[in-house]
């Protein structure tokens, strides 16, 4: 069940329409809080006030984290995992243009999983806390990819070791470990995958009260997403010949164009 709240901002914030329409990178932080015994409202607020992100994603957030909104303002949305005391949360310094969408993910025998997906205008962001099963969490990624726009990012706790194997996406998150399994084995399980986006910078922050380290990414749209990049070389020639054939046999255009009207791509 989605719990969505809006309150008057305490922090000085820009107009939300200005945030959504402005060019340049968005600063996004993601942190697995470690439910109940980990990061609390005070430590989250301190991090936000210091780093000033455009979007703050949280995993293992309990209902108590909603007090963040009263402390620093902004907009907050929390969705508990089915049957659990914790779930996914998002905080923004300005009101969301619309509440994040919540989608169900493939699940195993024990726990059900969900993802929050937020439209930032220029691209979409999925907040995730994936399952531990190494085949199951890759299936969950494929489901999320289907729900994102052409430009999108999947950010959060992947619980995944090794390559993500998600076609069309690049792993652009920090390369440093973000978690220690059993406090011994360092793992990079807090990640960021993108499609149609560029990561301008990335970093890992100190662990704080949680057992995960927060990650920061600065994301901006590619100049041209993969579907929009111009076709070059032989592929362009073949495309022109096919279009010419489709015009009813009026003769193929010159493969090199040569400035002729019949070979123009218009």
Provide a descriptive summary of the structure in words.
The chain is α+β, with helices and mostly antiparallel strands and 266 residues long. The protein folds into two domains: 3-221, Deoxyribonuclease I, Chain A (4-Layer Sandwich), CATH 3.60.10.10; 234-263, no CATH class. The protein has five helices and 15 strands. The chain has helices at residues 16-21, 41-51, 67-72, 136-147, 234-245; strands at 3-6, 26-32, 55-62, 75-80, 86-92, 101-105, 113-119, 124-129, 152-157, 170-171, 179-181, 185-187, 190-195, 197-204, 215-221. Strand 6 and strand 7 form a beta hairpin. It is globular, with a radius of gyration of 22 Å.
Strand content: 25-35%
Low-confidence sequence ranges: 4-22, 227-234, 248-266
- Distance N to C terminus: 50 Å
User: Which H/E pattern describes the elements?
Assistant: EHEHEHEEEEEHEEEEEEEH
Q: How would you characterize the largest beta sheet?
A: 7 strands, mixed
> What class would the helix/strand composition place it in?
alpha+beta
Helix content: 10-25%
Q: In angstroms, what is the radius of gyration?
A: 22 Å
Name given to the CATH architecture of the largest domain? 4-Layer Sandwich
Counted up, domains total: 2
| Strand line-up in the sheet with most strands | 1-4-5-3-2-15-14
Using the coordinates shown, work out and report the CATH topology of the largest domain: Deoxyribonuclease I, Chain A
Number of H- or I-type helical stretches: 5
Q: Any idea what the CATH superfamily of the largest domain is called?
A: Endonuclease/exonuclease/phosphatase
- Overall 3D form: globular
């Amino acid at each position: 069940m989605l719990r969505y709240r809006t309150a008057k901002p305490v922090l000085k914030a820009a107009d939300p329409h200005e945030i959504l329409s402005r060019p340049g990178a968005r600063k996004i932080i993601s942190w697995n809080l470690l439910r109940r015994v980990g990061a609390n409202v005070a430590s989250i607020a301190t991090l936000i006030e210091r780093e000033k992100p455009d979007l703050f994603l949280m995993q293992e957030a309990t209902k108590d984290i909603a007090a963040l909104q009263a402390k620093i303002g902004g907009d907050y949305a929390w969705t508990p995992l089915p049957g659990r005391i914790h779930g996914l949360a998002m905080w923004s310094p300005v009101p969301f243009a619309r509440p994040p969408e919540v989608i169900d993910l493939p699940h195993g025998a024990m726990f059900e999983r969900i993802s929050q997906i937020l439209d930032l205008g220029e691209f979409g962001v999925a907040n995730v806390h994936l399952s531990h099963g190494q085949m199951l969490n890759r299936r969950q990624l494929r489901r999320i990819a289907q729900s994102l726009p052409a430009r999108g990012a999947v950010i959060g706790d992947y619980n995944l070791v090794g390559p993500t194997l998600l076609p069309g996406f690049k792993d652009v998150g920090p390369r440093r470990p973000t978690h220690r399994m059993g406090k011994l084995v360092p793992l990079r399980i807090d990640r960021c995958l993108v499609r149609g986006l560029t990561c301008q910078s990335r970093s890992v922050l100190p662990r704080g009260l949680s057992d995960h380290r927060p990650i920061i990414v600065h994301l901006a749209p590619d100049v041209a997403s993969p579907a929009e990049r111009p076709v070059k070389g032989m592929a362009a020639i073949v495309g022109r010949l096919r279009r010419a054939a489709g015009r009813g046999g009026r003769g193929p255009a010159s493969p090199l164009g040569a400035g002729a009207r019949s070979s123009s791509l218009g």
